Amino acid sequence: MKRNVWKRIEALVDPGSFTHFDLGRATGFVTGSGIINGREVYVSAVDHLDLPDSPFDGLQHHFELLQRALDRPRPVVMILDIMAHQHLGKSPFPQDAAKLLAHRKGIGHWYSLHARLSGLVPQVCVVCARLGASMTFPVALCDCAVMLEDAGMSIGRPDVVEDMLGHPVDYLSLGSPEMHARISGSVDVVVKDEQAAMAWVRHYLDHFPSRAGARLPEHPPVPALEDATSIDALLPKGASVPFAIHPILDRLLDRDSFLEIKKEYAAECVTGLARIEGRSFGLVASNSKIHSGILLPDTCLKMSRFITLCDHFSLPLVFLADIPGFMVGTGAEQAGIIRHGAELFKAIGRATSRKLSITLRRNYTAGVYAMAGPGMGAEEFLALPGAVISIYGKNVAAKLGNRSNHRKDQINRRAMEETAADPGKLLEAGLLDEIIQADEIRGRIASFLSQPQRQG
């Protein structure tokens, strides 16, 4: 059941902590500040029952909140719903259309404010209804978007799309939460109800500082869900045998600390916020259970955005690699795999957050660099004893090797395979920092996180 705006805010902030800005104005928004787990945040929420005299004038109230966040930086939580004037009918022609479009304090100003806040403060959006047109872009302009399972968003409503394109469309494929979570990647998580949405936002903000350059929050150390000594048994001995990464994470991360970002989207790579020994960091982990963990264009987009987010707020980054490299072939090339891969390298190379790279089982071709390997700024490049780090996997090398009987090619191939089969040879050559045991991973990450963070 849809709550009124006050119940939503009560579920978000600590009890009794909300201070309402400009009480008494009928603007269609409720704005103010509240406390979440002891830290101040700004909140702007659409009041779907409050009909403003003018949509344009109502938006100015919301803009004042965003400007306040620029002037006195604090995290921003935006709760979006269908605005009251939109309940009056489904006309595609809004009131004040010219001002909303072309005024310097119109819709473009809304987008600009979010862009200017990006990287300065954490921004989270909660989508509580089916949004359309100009209200969709602010969702994606925030760092993180939470959507209720009965909500959605699309630039054009189904009836408008049908009129413009001449064929019917269904909302499931046009703007449903399932579509955005799995296909477009425009939302980070879909939740059952408003209570779950607000709880998710509280958990999310617990991993971030109040603004760029501030200290990361720390929490009491908590043991992992499972014992780390069983990690080795979960790793298949064959390099091409897929395995799920989540049971590994249960044995590494503080219990109940992991918040996965874009879980349903490009699931061959897991990204999320986690803690070890109470310290937060950004996790990037291959998931070979999906598409063998290979990098696709969408995978690169997901990783790039997450790495940049963590870097904005100086969250350390930990990479757990089990990766065959980048997808090849006509489809991948036409989808821009080179361009998206380059953007991923740019995100990693530019990131000044501290980075740690650990190869769990295999790390092939340019996938080495996509997981912050040598040359990409990681403080340490570590591997488990059975890890294979190579230009090609064994099967691919065999196929390519059959194409040439040239003596030099065969010598190069054998040298590559011999080195790949034993990470100790990489260690001897100074190409690997250390070989560690599987049950040491949690401790090594904890040691990495205990060192001073970069200050903005």
Write the layout of secondary structure elements.
Layout: H1 5-12, E1 19-20, E2 29-36, E3 39-46, H2 55-71, E4 76-80, H3 97-102, H4 107-117, E5 123-127, E6 130-132, H5 137-141, E7 144-148, E8 152-154, H6 158-165, H7 171-174, H8 177-184, E9 189-191, H9 194-205, H10 231-234, H11 246-250, E10 259-261, E11 269-276, E12 279-286, H12 297-312, E13 317-323, H13 330-334, H14 337-350, E14 355-364, H15 367-370, E15 380-383, E16 388-390, H16 394-401, H17 407-420, H18 423-428, E17 434-435, H19 441-450
Parallel strand pairs: 3-4, 4-5, 5-7, 6-8, 7-9, 12-13, 13-14, 14-15, 14-16, 15-17
Antiparallel strand pairs: 1-2, 2-3, 10-11, 11-12
Helix pairs in contact: 1-9, 2-4, 12-14
Oligomeric state of this protein: single chain
Low-confidence stretches: none
The CATH architecture of the largest domain can be given as Alpha-Beta Complex
Overall CATH class of the largest domain: Alpha Beta
The residue-averaged pLDDT reads 91
